[in-house]
Amino acid sequence: MADDNEDESPAVELGERDPVEGIPVARISSRLHWPVKKSEVVRKEGDETIRTPDGPRTLTDVLEDVDETYFQTEHEFTANIRDTIGTGPIPTADDS
Fold first, then answer.
1. If we measure between CA atoms, which residue out of 18, 86, 16 comes closest to residue 57?
2. Averaged pLDDT of the chain
3. Any residues with CB less than 8 A from the CB of 47 and at least 6 apart, and which?
4. pLDDT digits over 34-64, tens only?
5. Pairing mode of beta strands 36-37, 70-71
């Protein structure tokens, strides 16, 4: 059966995308194995730049402000990171 709406434009307009520096914390946490020591996270992923509401920061810099030294689960890791960096809109590369 043919779709009668083939000639119509998409339901959502996709605009120009502004670049955002850094990567989401979830991308880093998905590459780790749990449980894990904070020092091991720094060794493996510490140089990565993550997105924060205050602009891009290295994971090592963020982890310096985290009191935990051992993360049992991915959820525990991401919760500690989000408690440290906060939540909110992430600035684009032009805003920071």
1. 86
2. 85
3. 58, 59, 60
4. 999 999 999 999 999 999 999 999 999 999 9
5. antiparallel
The more confidently predicted of residues 20 and 17 is 20
In whole angstroms, what is the distance from residue 46 CA to residue 63 CA? 8
Query: Is the dihedral angle over the CA atoms 89, 90, 94, 95 positive or is it negative?
Result: positive
Distance separating alpha carbons of residues 94 and 25, to the nearest angstrom:
21
Whether this model's pTM surpasses 0.85: no
Which residues have C-beta within 8 Å of that of residue 85, sequence separation ≥ 6?
A: 50, 52, 53, 54, 57, 62
For residue 2, pLDDT beyond 60: no
Joined together, the tokens standing for residue 43 give 């060794």
